[in-house]
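Input (structure):
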């Protein structure tokens, strides 16, 4: 007879996600995870696999609950971009623990991860770029951006602004700096609007 688990896997995953997000993958040990979750190593391995597999599941949870959930939809495309940039800046300023973004934090620890984890991160960066591409393309179709605008180049520039903002936020919770990065990216869009 298979013994039922005596813990809530989603709750444990949420705790692990918070720990990885705060401390980073390399400095979070299995001992840390055991202490934070109250689940013994054998049970953690049985439920989630090794540390990297647990991390990947935590990263997927973060993607659903924090990353995708924060992206505005069903609004005018330029407004979606502006709202998301402003939201990211505010979220970073409001975080007293300066956790930054788990996706960008992981990208900065690239050498510590397997190819499969790096592939997840590359997919998320592609998703950010795609968010910008889709909204820029729609804004261009709506006549809110000039037909001459290079959408791919602009989307990459906006991706760079987001990555830069989230990396800076991990080191400095400085509202002026973070809001200035967001404002600079938004100003790029304003300057490209047709007269």
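Output (sequence):
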């Amino acid at each position: 007879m298979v013994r039922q688990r005596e813990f809530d896997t989603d709750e444990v995953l949420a705790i692990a996600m918070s720990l990885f997000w705060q401390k980073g993958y390399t400095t979070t040990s299995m001992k840390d995870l055991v202490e934070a979750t109250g689940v013994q190593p054998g049970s953690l391995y049985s439920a989630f696999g090794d540390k990297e597999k647990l991390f990947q599941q935590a990263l997927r949870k973060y993607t659903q609950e924090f990353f995708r959930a924060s992206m505005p939809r069903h609004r005018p495309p330029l407004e979606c971009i502006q709202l998301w940039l402003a939201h990211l800046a505010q979220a970073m300023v409001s975080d007293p623990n300066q956790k930054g973004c788990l996706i960008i934090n992981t990208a900065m620890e690239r050498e510590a991860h397997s190819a499969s984890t790096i592939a997840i991160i590359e997919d998320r960066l592609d998703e950010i770029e795609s968010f910008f591409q889709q909204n820029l393309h729609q804004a261009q179709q709506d006549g809110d951006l000039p037909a001459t605008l290079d959408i791919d180049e602009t989307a990459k520039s906006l991706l760079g602004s987001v990555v830069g903002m989230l990396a800076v936020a991990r080191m400095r919770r400085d509202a002026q700096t973070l809001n200035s990065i967001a404002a600079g990216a938004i100003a790029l869009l304003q300057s490209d609007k047709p007269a």
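Notes: The first helix runs from residue 9 to 23. The two ends are 73 Å apart (CA to CA).
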